[in-house]
Design a protein that fits this description.
Length: 230
């Protein structure tokens, strides 16, 4: 996936070199660099991006630029990333940009459950999964499911995490959120190879609708536990 992201980055650079200096191309470059693992370059490429996006007076462009900036800073400065993504989410919601809203929700979930409010995080992932499912985008829906699996691993729900990983793990999801690979290895270690393969196989065999229903059940289970422990 790194080579694919790298090639997209080169395409963005080529467009910018031709004078297509739009905020959208710059945001795509940031995301491509980040997904290729070039985080320092991605952060450097965010310089002036939000200002350029604001100058377009286009909420789609602004919310996408904020998504890219939040994605780039998610590990280096998670609190800054959360604030940036929250601003992007408000911008997308207020302007009816459902696609950007859903991408922002997935990224906020990943940060909120570690650095913010876990209950807010569960609201984010529920809506992200619902939006992707309702739109028929089952490929991208695997991304929030993969992050959910990492969350469940952290909560000690190893069987549920293995089941969801079986359905959700893809090269795209792993490139965007590498922690799913760590979660997969940890869950396998806790359950053992045989149990892990059985549960992951069961997840892989689920229909999309069945997996979504299963994910909602696990989210509700985690929400109930978090509310009881507050």
């Amino acid at each position: 996936m790194g080579s694919v992201s790298g090639s997209r980055g080169e395409w963005c650079r080529a467009q910018l070199a031709r004078g297509s200096d739009t905020a959208l191309f710059r945001a795509c470059l940031v995301l491509s660099l980040a997904m290729a693992g070039s985080m320092d370059e991605a952060i450097t490429a965010t310089k002036g991006l939000v200002d350029a996006a604001e100058a377009t007076n286009n909420p789609h462009t602004l919310s996408f630029a904020l998504l890219a900036c939040g994605f780039a800073f998610r590990d280096a400065e998670p609190k800054r990333a959360i604030e940036t993504l929250r601003r992007g989410l408000v911008t997308a919601e207020d302007s009816g940009n459902r696609g950007n809203e859903t991408h922002l929700l997935a990224n906020l979930f990943r940060l909120e459950y570690v650095h913010g409010d876990p209950l807010d995080a569960l609201d984010h992932v529920t809506l992200a999964i619902r939006n992707y499912h309702d739109s028929g985008d089952t490929a991208t829906m695997r991304t929030p499911l993969a992050i959910l699996a990492a969350f469940l691993d952290r909560r000690g729900y190893f069987e549920a995490a293995a089941t969801i990983i079986g359905f959700a793990l893809s090269s795209f999801a792993a490139a965007a959120f590498p922690e799913v690979n760590t979660a997969s290895a940890h869950v396998r270690d806790r359950l053992g190879d045989q149990a892990y393969e059985m549960l992951a196989g069961a997840g892989a065999a689920m229909t999309t609708a069945a997996m979504v229903a299963y994910a909602y059940d696990q989210i509700n289970r985690a929400r109930t536990e978090l509310e009881q422990n507050r």
